[in-house]
């Protein structure tokens, strides 16, 4: 019987088939295992059903013809096509292929077999019936003489090797015992480290919670500080407003730390500042100015923005609204050259900025581009000296002609309001006479 497929699988699962180590369970009370040479009672030997099932699915080729198919069908094929197979070596017939295979493997005198000393150099193929004669040949005897001493030497070496192996095993046993002890120590250390790690994690959790609480507390402090800062600014503004406010419709606003105020506006710390409050009269309109040092909206970083702010006052209920007077704004030249920068804000009576205030103050209105920053940032300019500048605001009660505005703004603020008014009226009269004479 020759297998057609899965030869490697046959070698792995059933090496006894390849070596022909088949247990003969017919005859004898005991059986010798071809693998381990252990004797077993014949009655104890059981067929391997799993092996049998695997074998039945193998594809085989008939040794006597060209048929191939599953092993489970092979016996039927032999019974049908080959009822009395013949040995190809001695031409004897047998009732079954199993008997034929056993005959060829162990009994047929005409089969060519290998000499048992093939691995030692005796490579002759001899008929089974001539093996006894072959054993007597000079070639076989010479090989046998060479083999026997070599095997004895190998046996002696095996004893020495066995002693060496036993010594190695003793050493390995000691090493393994020490390794087991070390493993125990390491296991204990790991457990201790795990306990320490758990304790550290708990401490970390507590610390993290504490840090989070501290962070929340610090945030609250920062917020409280910001609120306090705003309160301080508000209080400072109120104190500033309480300092003998002007009540003749004129304000000269002294602004210090100009560079810092511009920087604060750039960083949005304080985008705008308010002037001290002033009044149109002791019982008149309440007014202040609003300055954006770094500009407002589209004028940011290019101009200062200046606005008029009408505030809710104590006498609003007896005043006339909307506020209908011009406002004159002037950035004063501190060099004495009287090159003031000024502009006039005409009232827009329809704007809510001029109506009676319903809240603390109305919406600011004025000049988004009052003065270019580049002028103020020039070294030794006429308007910022010792990091201080002055802005003058006037209510134009009498509608001054544009031609005398420069004269009005150049009057020394050291004079009394009455004296200033008299000088303005005289200049106004002179201007009218000149106009008539022309």
Automatic annotation (TrEMBL):
SUPFAM superfamilies: TRAF domain-like
Keyword Repressor: no
Coiled-coil regions listed: 162-214
Domain annotation MATH: ranges: 248-395
UniProt-listed PROSITE patterns: MATH (PS50144)
Keywords tagged on the record: Coiled coil
Short name of one Pfam family: TRAF-mep_MATH
Record-level Gene Ontology MF annotations: zinc ion binding
Superkingdom as given in the UniProt entry: Eukaryota
InterPro entries: MATH/TRAF_dom (IPR002083), TNF_rcpt-assoc_TRAF_met (IPR012227), TRAF-like (IPR008974), TRAF1-6_MATH_dom (IPR049342), Znf_RING/FYVE/PHD (IPR013083)
GO biological process, one term: regulation of apoptotic process
Designated name of the protein: MATH domain-containing protein
Organism: Adineta ricciae (Rotifer)
Origin organism lineage: Eukaryota, Metazoa, Spiralia, Gnathifera, Rotifera
């Amino acid at each position: 019987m020759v297998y057609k497929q899965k030869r490697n699988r046959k070698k792995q699962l059933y090496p006894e088939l390849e070596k022909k180590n088949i247990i003969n369970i017919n005859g004898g009370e005991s059986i010798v295992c071809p693998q381990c040479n252990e004797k077993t009672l014949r009655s104890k030997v059981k067929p391997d059903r799993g092996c049998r099932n695997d074998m039945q699915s193998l594809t085989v080729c008939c040794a006597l013809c060209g048929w191939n198919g599953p092993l489970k069908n092979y016996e039927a094929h032999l019974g049908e096509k080959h009822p009395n197979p013949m040995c190809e070596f001695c031409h004897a017939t047998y009732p079954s292929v199993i008997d034929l295979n056993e005959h060829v493997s162990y009994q047929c005198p005409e089969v060519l077999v290998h000499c048992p000393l093939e691995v030692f150099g005796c490579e002759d193929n001899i008929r089974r019936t001539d093996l006894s004669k072959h054993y007597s040949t000079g070639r076989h005897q010479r090989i046998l003489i060479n083999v026997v001493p070599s095997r004895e030497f190998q046996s002696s070496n095996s004893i020495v090797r066995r002693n060496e192996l036993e010594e190695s095993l003793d050493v390995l046993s000691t090493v393994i015992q020490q390794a087991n002890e070390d493993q125990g120590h390491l296991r204990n250390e790991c457990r201790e480290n795990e306990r320490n790690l758990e304790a550290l994690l708990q401490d970390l959790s507590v610390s993290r919670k504490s840090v989070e609480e501290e962070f929340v507390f610090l945030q609250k402090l920062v917020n409280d500080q910001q609120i306090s800062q705003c309160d301080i600014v508000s209080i400072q503004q109120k104190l500033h407003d309480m300092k003998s406010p002007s009540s003749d419709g004129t304000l000269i606003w002294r602004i210090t730390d100009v560079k810092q105020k511009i920087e604060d506006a750039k960083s949005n710390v304080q985008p705008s500042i308010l002037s001290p409050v002033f009044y149109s009269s002791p019982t008149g309109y309440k007014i202040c100015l609003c300055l954006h040092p770094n500009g407002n909206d589209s004028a940011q970083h290019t101009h200062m923005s200046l606005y008029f702010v009408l505030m809710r006052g104590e006498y609003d209920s007896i005043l006339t609204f909307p506020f209908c007077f011009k406002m004159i704004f002037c950035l004063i030249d501190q060099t004495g050259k009287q090159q003031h920068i000024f502009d006039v804000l005409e009232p827009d009576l329809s704007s809510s900025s001029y109506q009676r205030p319903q809240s603390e103050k109305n919406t600011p209105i004025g000049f988004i581009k009052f003065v270019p920053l580049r002028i103020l940032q020039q070294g030794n300019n006429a308007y910022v000296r010792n990091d201080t500048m002055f802005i003058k605001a006037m209510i134009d009660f009498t509608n001054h002609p544009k031609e005398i505005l420069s004269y009005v703004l150049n009057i020394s603020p050291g004079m009394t309001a009455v004296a200033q008014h008299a000088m303005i009226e005289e200049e106004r009269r002179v201007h009218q006479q000149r106009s008539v004479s022309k």
